[in-house]
Write a structure and sequence with these properties.
The complex is a heterodimer of chains A (about 300) and B (about 400).
Chain A: H1 2-6, H2 10-42, H3 47-51, H4 67-98, H5 104-118, H6 121-144, H7 156-181, H8 184-192, H9 197-226, H10 254-264, H11 268-308
Helix pairs in contact in A: 2-11, 4-7, 4-9, 5-7, 6-7, 7-9, 8-9, 9-11, 10-11
Chain B: H1 22-29, H2 34-47, H3 49-69, H4 92-99, H5 103-107, H6 111-127, H7 140-144, E1 159-160, E2 167-168, H8 171-202, H9 205-220, H10 223-242, H11 250-274, H12 278-286, H13 291-320, H14 323-328, H15 346-353, H16 362-398
């Protein structure tokens, strides 16, 4: 019908424009939030702020530093990665290399992983308190320290353990994806040369999937560095005069510090600069970790290309 | 093929031989590799850890909540006073509970001291004037139904865990959670789904490549940062625009919460829309439909279960989100229909109160009960969402 053709289809035009506006308003929100934080936080950045402690006044913009929180966050994230990486990678290996996708066990494992990813972070906090701090920690104290309080209280190691449980699905999903991307021919070639299945996985499949494993670790670290609710009762401290030196010590944390500064400050106007600064450091830390991961990944890929000729 | 390496070759135990692996299998058959067998068993055991963790969360959150959930706690402060002459006839447990001490402590006192303690307690009970002290406020009735407290002129739902008579009515918290979640979904569902339609169906590939990571960047911003942003910047901004009374309220919290939910709804909807076979779109376009009509009338209906699942999972995320509501909702546990009133959510109550409770006390157990409720709610929404997404995937793969 030639008449239809000529008429402008206003409904389609307007609707398309509307979804476009929606899309860009979301992008704009991201831009406004990040821009606002960078703009306001940049003013607070100084060597003293990043490497200074909180001794001279936690809420005072001129003196406060965030080094203890950076230290605590990094310590937390490193311990968490040590815990979550082996378990997550091994689970992913089972799921992609051994499991039959139709078996009931596999389906239950996948269901559990999906569910674990959806558990609210505050419930992880309750779980960490009930299981790690009281049950495991209390048990260790009873057995090894004769009831003396060492591990049966909020501690760095319990916060890291709780966070490891929280990030487990992230690592599993990313690693499994990477393992599945390794060509089938490589495995068959390896086995045709007489390697066992385990040797094939260890020598051929895993090295190929390493960038994916690292991506998983990075995503986990990004998540772990920003979560606050799970560590509120399992190890994060409001204020500490010293850096944590032992696994059973409490620690300060960037995210928790942001919460403390913005809700407990006696004078929010005076605290605002430190607050923006701390938020910027937190965002930069997660982005820096991401960047480091991306570089490592690129190097591994380059090496793999070289090796492949 | 869902599991490319699942052809049974390699493991010495695997009986099934698939054509190409026969030689390798024959070589492997020569000796049984116990070391590898053990390692492979180990891999299987480790892979069960996700199940173990869900199980442990269930057990350890449930364990603390159980006495309250089963109605075994009683915090009524006025019992029937015990007369001193009754003492010899009472069991030590009952007497200890009456005096508020442990049985071990009880045994350290002689009969005379006990008599004096019982008389003192009786005196104390007579002195309490508040009739509400008679009530067990940790019972399910008191936690879920309105009650006319001493000094109030009508029955009310009250969450006031730290007061002379602790009041544990969880209805205000549930209403608070639902209010913030509702606002969040009202904002994030249209934005998330609209953006998903645009990005997956209408936008040029170059736009898609830049917009998609930008929206996904939002999910990388920690929720404490969004909470901070809502508290410091957004609250003031929205108050200037809408001119409501309390600066922190369910609306501000809901808007910030919406920001955390948008990436989830966007990503899952976009996945669902993109997985609709391109042939659908091409057929519609060939019949003369505009790209919008193809997207709206052909692709979207095919992907509706996925979009629904996105909303369900977004709901689960919003109701479980803690830091944003803790910082931006104002945390007043009032029952009101207005979204511009301050509200207190389930998650925020746990986060704000758990640090100050007595371990093993009633308040502590009720906070764990709230956690168990949250766990159950998100468990069910996740299950529902997963089932719907899975069905959709099967359907679309079948129609390809």
């Amino acid at each position: 019908m030639p008449f239809r053709r000529k008429r402008t289809d206003w409904q389609s035009l307007v609707s398309t424009a509307a979804t476009g506006v929606m899309t860009f308003s979301v992008v704009a929100m991201v831009g406004v939030i990040l821009g606002n934080i960078v703009w306001n936080g940049a003013a607070q950045m100084s060597l003293h702020f990043i490497f200074g402690g909180t001794k001279e006044g936690m809420f005072d913009a001129a003196h406060a530093g965030v080094f203890p929180m950076i230290f605590g966050t990094v310590a937390l994230v490193v311990l968490m990665t040590l815990g979550v990486l082996p378990v997550g990678v091994i689970t992913a290996i089972y799921l992609s290399e051994y499991a039959r996708s139709t078996s009931a066990v596999t389906r239950v494992i996948r269901g559990a992983i999906n569910n674990l990813a959806g558990v609210p972070s505050i419930v992880f906090g309750l779980f960490g308190l009930g299981f790690f701090v009281q049950f495991v920690g209390g048990g260790i104290d009873k057995v090894f320290y004769g009831g003396q309080l060492n591990y049966g209280k909020p501690a760095l190691v319990w916060a890291a353990a709780t966070m490891a449980v929280l990030t487990l699905p992230v690592v599993i999903v990313a690693t499994e994806e990477a393992l599945r991307a390794v060509p089938k021919g490589l495995r068959e070639g390896s086995m045709a040369l007489g390697a066992t299945k385990l040797e094939t996985i260890w020598r051929i499949v895993l090295p190929q999937a390493l960038p994916g494993v690292i991506t998983g670790a990075i995503l986990a670290v990004g998540r772990g560095a920003g979560e606050v609710a799970p560590i509120m009762f399992t190890g994060a401290a409001y204020f500490l005069a010293h850096l944590p030196s032992h696994l059973s010590d409490q620690f300060m944390n960037l995210g928790y510090h942001v919460f403390v500064l913005s809700t407990q400050s006696p004078d929010i106007e005076r605290t605002k600069p430190i607050l923006f600064g701390t938020v910027l450091v937190l965002l930069m830390l997660t982005f820096l970790l991401n960047l480091a991961g991306v570089i490592v990944r690129a190097r591994i890929r380059a090496r793999a290309r070289q090796a492949n000729g | 093929m869902q599991a490319p390496m699942n052809n049974g070759c390699g493991t010495p135990q695997a009986g099934a031989l698939s054509g190409r692996a026969t030689l390798a299998e024959a070589i492997l058959r020569r000796k049984h590799r116990w070391g590898e067998w053990l390692v492979e068993r180990g891999i299987f055991m480790v892979s069960l850890s996700a199940i173990l963790m869900i199980f442990l969360i269930f057990i350890f959150v449930g364990r603390e909540a159980l006495p309250v959930a089963l109605g075994r706690t009683n915090n009524a402060r006025i019992q029937k006073p015990i007369v001193a002459a009754e003492i010899p006839r009472l069991s030590p447990e009952k007497l200890a509970a009456y005096l508020g001490m442990t049985v071990a402590d009880l045994k350290t006192y002689d009969a005379d001291t006990l008599r004096q303690l019982v008389e003192l307690k009786g005196q104390e009970l007579q002195d309490i004037g508040n009739p509400d002290a008679r009530i067990n406020t940790t019972s399910w009735n008191m936690m879920t139904e309105p009650y006319r407290w001493h000094g109030y002129d009508k029955p009310e739902f009250i969450w006031q865990p730290v007061s002379e008579i602790p009041k544990f009515n969880i209805i205000p918290l549930i209403i608070g959670s639902l209010k913030a979640t509702l606002v969040a979904l009202l904002l994030s569902v249209p934005l998330g789904v609209g953006a998903a339609i645009y990005v997956s169906q209408l936008a040029r590939p170059s736009v898609r490549e830049t917009v998609k990571p930008a929206i996904e960047l939002l999910s990388g911003i920690p929720s404490v940062v969004l909470g901070f942003f809502a508290l410091i910047v957004l609250a003031t901004m929205l108050q200037t625009v809408f001119g409501y009374e309390s600066r922190l309220n369910a609306f501000v919290a809901g808007v910030a919460l919406g920001l955390t939910v948008i990436p989830i709804i966007f990503t899952i909807s976009e996945d669902a829309l993109s997985s609709v076979p391109k042939a659908f779109t091409h057929a519609a376009l060939a019949l003369g439909a505009s790209p919008w009509k193809a997207a709206w009338q052909v692709v979207l209906p095919a992907a509706v279960p996925g979009v629904f699942a996105a909303c369900v999972l977004g709901f689960g995320r919003a109701i479980g989100e803690t830091m944003v509501v803790l910082m931006a909702s104002g945390n007043a546990s009032i029952v009101s229909g207005s979204i511009f009133d301050s509200c207190r959510t389930l998650t925020a109550s746990i986060a704000a109160e758990l640090a100050e409770v007595v371990f093993g006390g009633d308040h502590y157990r009720i906070l764990f009960l709230l956690g168990a409720l949250l766990f159950a709610a998100t468990f069910l929404t996740n299950l529902l969402g997963d089932v719907v997404v899975h069905r959709l995937k099967l359907k679309l793969e079948g129609s390809r």
